[in-house]
User: What shape does this take?
Amino acid sequence: MGRYVAKRIATSILTFFGTIILTFILFRLLPGNPIQLLFRNPQLTQKQIQLLNSQFGLNKPLWLQFVLFVRNVFVGNWGISFFYRAPVTQVLFPALLNSVILILPATVLAILIGVGLGVLSGWKRNSASDVAILTSSLILYAIPTFWLGILFIMVAVKVGGIPVSGMVAIGVSLSTPTTFLVSLLRHLFLPMITLTLVTLGQFTIIMRSSLIGELTEDYVVAAYAKGMSSDRLLRKHVVPNALLPTVSIIAISIGTIVAGAVLTETVFSWPGVGSLIYDSIFRRDYPVLQGAFLIVAFFVIVSNFVADLVYAYLDPRVKYS
Amino acid sequence: MVGVGILVLLFAIAILAPFISPYNPTQIDPNAILQPPSAKHLLGTNEVGEDILSLVIWGSRISLLVGFLATAVAILLGTLIGVVAGYSGGIVDEALMRATDFFLVVPAVVLAIVVAALLGNSLPNVIIIIGLLSWPPTARVVRSATLVYKQMPFVEASKGAGGSTAHIIRKHILPNVMPLVYANTALTIANAIFTQSALVFLGVGDVNDISWGQTLHFAYSSGSITAGYYWYAIPPGIMIVVAVLGFALTGYALDEIFNPRLRGGAILVSA
Assistant: This one.
């Protein structure tokens, strides 16, 4: 087990380094001088520009800039936001917290509901409920995230009373923790439903196929012939085995979930990292964009690592490979 | 079968757009702003008076075009990398697989947004970006298939008779591998259509060409959603759902036909 964990850690670190390199290259491809983007003052003299260049280390050779960049990433110096004129980390971490509040419950819900529906659908293959579940999952899989959000907004506006933007009510005094929590939950309602719905479609489909495949195995026939109840057979043997491919698919879709979160946050103006990415594109706030990209990549890499550990726990065969 | 039917319909709409669209989609009518569906405008009008039905019909062209071209790029790249990795083995294989895993892990849409924002959002750029981010699944499928066919006796026989590597790949490996790629192609197209509309919706794709994402973009940014003008946002979204469904269903059907493991009722493992 230790060797497996060590190997996974090494791969994750490699991937993160790859991301750092990619980020460095991407953001150096930008047209324009970063100094002029930061200060946006048409009256900067050449001498001032040169001074600022050397202050920010922009006149050093590219490989040295890269080394300093890597060092800065690990030290926590992620640059200064062009728009907020504050350290990027200061801008990023509140947004990250908000994103986690949205993504974590939505993912957990999507996994629970998706897997549950998949098992139900696979067990009762070709029945009415199976067809219903499969059709709705396919449609959910095909619906664009932002369009579903838009639909919900339209419905909410008609119905009234359900907040469609922001994280808490603005201009209202939220003195006690309870009022704050209530306001937060009311605003969380729509974005979370949207994100959960678009994610669970593919989980259901995968779990269903996996379960159907597992049910063709010989041990299922043997156990049933020996008199084991189907309920116990499902719970103790078939579902845990069928979960394995599902877990690896879920791990791969973490990236998609994050992408869905970006779209959901933008549509509902939920102040998370996704919204931040969208806003900083239009404000040309490249340091924040770079930092947000790094943090998103880091988050996905860590999640994949955790998913691999879960997979190793579920499938003992992996540990000895 | 349903999938193929949907696709045929979509193709027809895209190709026949100039003939079946009631109005020129860029024709604005300041007297008829934001009209709900009526006899004159079957799906209503938007905030500059353009007919939404026409917008949706014409939008199919760009959305499908980007879907196809981006997928072409992805399939080309994926097949190339997959075959090279599978056939060479050893360190080339390891390195290419690391790269593939890397691109699988990094959230593609986020990377697409960042790259499009940085390098410009013209149509060719968007196509290339989506293509460059969609090749990993294809590469994986092709690599697994190459590994299988590499062991086959007829490859060994060909090598023994003096066949060069290029010859073997071209005549023996590729023809057997390609059918597995077809299913993947359909799913990749579905994904590309979705990604393109997401990029345009956010404003980092090409907002000047008429596409479904573009119509949704203006629906959202003009505030017509909260104002309750439902006819603006619903049709383009439905078209995207239909298109993605069409390609996905076709992809699953192709997978069932071409993937030998599936016919025996084995587990469906999407590569």
About this structure: The mean pLDDT of chain A is 79. Chain A has one domain: 94-320. Chain A touches chain B through 57 residues (CB under 8 Å). Residues 168 and 183 of chain A are 5 Å apart (CA to CA).
